[in-house]
Specification:
single chain; alpha+beta; Alpha-Beta Plaits; four-stranded antiparallel sheet; about 30% strand
């Protein structure tokens, strides 16, 4: 598996719009998409962390390079105060409750 962690600063008062936007990804049934999570940071200041997981690096890159993702990203970016910090990498452990 492969994915990204991102540090985001969502514009004040736009959290609900961001959640609605991110829900569209799940509804889009992106090829190779596994999971995502959005965290509101304890540090405040409208800081959030997002984790996204795909089945493989190839699936992640195919999505990232698609024109559809570019359009989704432009909408996503319009809800942020600044550019996100991206940290891509291989998922080496994934656990779920049983």
């Amino acid at each position: 598996m492969y994915g990204t962690l991102a540090r985001l600063q969502i514009q004040s008062g736009r959290e609900d719009e961001m959640i609605e936007h991110l829900n569209q990804y799940d509804a889009s049934q992106l090829r190779g998409f596994v999971a995502s999570a959005l965290y509101r940071a304890d540090e405040g200041g409208d800081v959030y962390w997002m984790a996204v997981v795909f089945e493989s690096k190839e699936a992640y890159r195919a999505n990232a390079d698609s024109p559809e993702q570019d359009a989704r990203y432009r909408e996503f970016r319009s809800l942020l105060s600044s550019d996100p910090e991206w940290h891509d990498g291989e998922v080496v452990l994934r656990q779920t409750a049983s």
